[in-house]
Amino acid sequence: MFELTARFPTVLPARLLAEDSARQVLPNRFDLWLGRRFGELACRLHAHRRRLEPLVRRVELRWYELEALDAAELKQCVGESARRVRRRAADPDALVEALALACEVARRELGLRPYPVQVLGALVMLAGGIAEMATGEGKTLTAGLAAVCGALRGQPVHVVTVNDYLAHRDGTSLRPLYEFFDLSVGIVQGGQLQEERRKAYACHVTYTTNKDVVFDYMRTQLAQGVAVSPRRAWLKRALGEDLGRGGGIVERLGFAIVDEADSILIDEARTPLIISRERDTGVGEVCAAALGIAMQLEDEQDFRVDSQTRGIELTEAGRDRLRELVEGLGGVWRSERQREHLCLQALSAQRVFQCDRDYIVRDGKVQIVDEFTGRVLADRSWERGLHQMVEAKEGLEITPHRDSVARLTYQRFFARYETLGGMTGTATEVAGELWASYGRNVVSIPTHRPVQRHIGPTRMFRSGAQRWDAVAQRCSDHIAAGRSVLVGTRSVAQSEGLSARLTELGVEHLVLNAKQDANEAQIVALAGQPGRVTVATNMAGRGTDIKLHPDVAAAGGLHVILTEFHESKRIDRQLYGRGARQGDPGSCEALVSIEDDIFERFASPARRLLGRLAPSRDELPGRAAALLRWIAQTQAERVHARVRLDTVRQEARMERMMAFAGRGE
């Protein structure tokens, strides 16, 4: 890497997530707190951006010279630059030449002229940082510029996105850029055969999703017999045992470019990824019995539900009641630990997990819906019997029970790349945690054009019905003015409920949620047309680029309506970012209800207090709404940060305990 790499460390501050479990230490809360404060300060000072800006100017000057070359001369320069970068990867001059060439090739082959801010974003990622670029600033091309330079210096490049749609779109659209540099491009998609995946990862640049690359890596480790324990792997090598190398899917972790880095590295890092195998235990009868027993337990008296973490705990009275209910039953019900576990899973299926919010039922199967992206997680299931409980609750065929054979967290996986960079439109709020957990600096990139987004005042209604009536009226007003409207909802059920309300009013619209994911590209393509209303879950959030019809732009652009605040302010910003992109006009507003789930879970006392204000008014004052939002989102972020820390600590303990047992990864 070039000289400035030292200012963007590529290892964790204390190697908290090192591969060798002998050097692992449990994260210290004070060190993590100090790391967060340092990361936040570094982001605000913009020192790293100022160090890279001179390189941007050098790239631009060299680019102007390259524009005068013909195709043959440019191709010759590409070959010379590739050899130079491979020999002298740490030379800033070689990096400047490679980036300038990538910009000129993008202009000729793609018809896109990279902006200076995109060059700056590519430099940040090449240096192992997280580039915060506003929505619509061209992160796809920015990643392409960085990927070209990373591949030229000999590193296999993984561009990690949040879904198959973005991986296919970005990999296909940038293919001419890579092929001009004689770089091969692979695209990993759900449902591919193992041989197809192996070929895709063997390419110079591979586009994949975060879940695919982690699972493929774990499968490789399992196939090679070194999955779980670096100590065990070292011991086997010392004894001369064959580790079976060369037969895996993902053989080397070089340079990772993580798109939507805050979503992947922070939001989705609460839960480890697990590979499991089927075990037929006749679980159907057990699940049916557990659900029947759980129905006889009383809330608050026999069990308590933590509204923030959605965890359930039995009371002493509940344990006694459970002991009475299972009296006379044999098998697993004789074990106190087993029966309590089954009861808790049954209560979770009944009281916590809701259809059309946490999952959908399609083709006779329970399919999990990702709370951050709104998409179906194909071939994923909940562990420890919870999935079977939900299937039994819905009256579906029970799938066989599954045992965990490998698990890995995002924190440990991404720490194994030689270089880790990323980009997102919303990273400032988690700059401290990205530094404390991954050693990544967040660099805020300015916009190419001034942002013309108008943010309207938040309106908070006393009931959900009043909120939906107001949303429908706002849709009618804006389409009458010739604009297009995007309405964001939190769940499939909410999107379908609003759809029914719009239908009653005669408002034409399209719905995009986990049940209509097959028509995503078509719905997004029409979302910017005059008079178009699109009701969508988080599927229309990250990575969705809505092209405006000229008449819509002239009428004021896309209007975005947020109908419920998310647990992270960053996700709200992502939805707002669908409008007013790249200097286009646009507006957004939030129409929420005091009855929303986020206020009940994370700000219940404040919600009750504010609910007593102005009891005769249908809407609460704007300042009260802003205060309630701040309380709820602050508490939610605190809870999720604690869960992520607990996950890391648990994984570290398991790695130490299982160092020679061959379990864990």
List keywords for this structure.
Rossmann fold; 3 domains; seven-stranded parallel β-sheet; alpha/beta; 665 residues
Give the structure's gist in a few sentences.
The protein is an alpha/beta fold and 665 residues long. A hairpin with a 2-residue loop joins strand 9 (359-362) and strand 10 (365-368). The model is unreliable at 1-25, 226-231, 233-237, 241-246 and 659-664 (pLDDT under 50).
What does this entry look like structurally?
With 665 residues, the protein is of the alpha/beta class. It has three domains: 12-273 and 409-444, Rossmann fold (3-Layer(aba) Sandwich), CATH 3.40.50; 281-399, SecA, preprotein cross-linking domain (Pre-protein croslinking domain of SecA); 452-636, Rossmann fold (3-Layer(aba) Sandwich), CATH 3.40.50. The chain has 26 helices and 21 strands. Helix 1 packs across helix 18 (431-438) and helix 15 (336-351) crosses helix 16. The two termini are 30 Å apart. The longest helix is centred in the last third of the chain and has 36 residues, at 622-657. The strands form five sheets. Strands 14, 15, 16, 17, 18, 19, 20 and 21 form an eight-stranded mixed sheet that branches. Residues 1-25, 226-231, 233-237, 241-246 and 659-664 have low confidence and may be disordered.
